[in-house]
Design goal:
The chain contains 9 helices and 8 strands. It is globular and about 40 Å long. The protein is about 25% helix and about 20% strand. Strands 1, 2, 3, 4, 5, 6, 7 and 8 form an 8-stranded antiparallel beta sheet that branches. The chain binds a DNA duplex (13 and 13 nucleotides) through β3, β4 and α6.
DNA sequence: GTGAAGATTTACT
DNA sequence: GTAAATCTTCACC
């Protein structure tokens, strides 16, 4: 978080010329595993239809490296209407609907058929809007929702950011005015917890074992924390 | 045309 | 912990 960038922004002559911190194609043009780790600490940005800006720091990701991965929608090169975005150039949004009522948000990586699932973000801006969006579909309303409950799961963050297949799927994050990524913190390696992926039991033991999930050590906005592993790391 | 499954979340016991 | 909610997508007949 370069201080000089901030001061540049402040000294900018016009308010309408905000420094563009948007991550570019070159950033996304990495292999899946590498992109997944690199995305931790970066900032997901969303401009809603009502022109409200929502931002959140990415704190948890999962790799679906592509055609070799049994758990991936693109296993064995399978390409369908649904997963087409996985085969688009790096930096495109792959959004799909699951269980009839939820969405998951992914970013395509360098390899054809590879993508990174964004599993959790830490709310930075637009808390009120997120609460409202999350409360919409809840039976008991959203008044008791805490910040850490707003985006601590792949479908939760989609609700909070108003990400739907209809609005976001196949959008180019390097160009879109509705959704993009900005630079954020660099997370050092020893602050990254690496574990197995969540919710893919049906894919078979071998792929379930793969260490393809990454999250920021100690961050309370992560969906599923591995306390044992975190303890081990903090001992070193 | 039909059927089964799903990278989840919520509410309830 | 367990179960219900809810419907699109895809494989196969």
């Amino acid at each position: 978080m370069p201080d000089d960038q901030t001061s540049q922004e402040e000294s900018s002559t016009s308010k309408y010329f905000k420094t563009d911190n948007r991550l570019k194609f070159e950033y996304f043009d990495k292999e899946c595993l590498s992109l997944s780790k690199s995305l931790l600490g970066k900032v997901l940005c969303r401009k809603t239809e009502t022109n409200i800006l929502i931002k959140g720091k990415i704190v948890e990701t999962e790799s679906y490296p592509g055609t070799q991965d049994v758990a991936s929608h693109s296993y064995q090169g399978k390409q369908t209407k649904r997963n087409g975005a996985m085969f688009m150039p790096p930096g495109c949004a792959y959004v799909y609907k699951i269980y009839g009522m939820y969405h998951c948000f992914n970013i395509s990586s360098q390899e054809s058929g590879g993508a990174v699932l964004i599993r959790a973000v830490e709310p930075l801006e637009g808390h009120a809007e997120m609460k409202m969006l999350r409360a919409l579909k809840r039976k008991s309303g959203g008044s008791e929702l805490k910040d850490k409950d707003l985006c601590s799961g792949p479908s939760k963050l989609c609700q909070a950011f108003n990400i739907t297949k209809e609005s976001i799927n196949e959008q180019d994050l390097t160009k879109s005015a509705e959704i993009w990524l900005e630079d954020g913190e660099d997370i050092v390696d020893n602050a990254i917890v690496t574990t197995t992926r969540i919710g893919i039991e049906g894919a078979g033991a071998e792929s379930v074992m793969k260490p393809y999930r990454f999250y920021i050590l100690g961050n309370i906005h992560v969906s599923v924390r591995d306390k044992k592993k975190e303890h081990e790391i903090s001992q070193n």
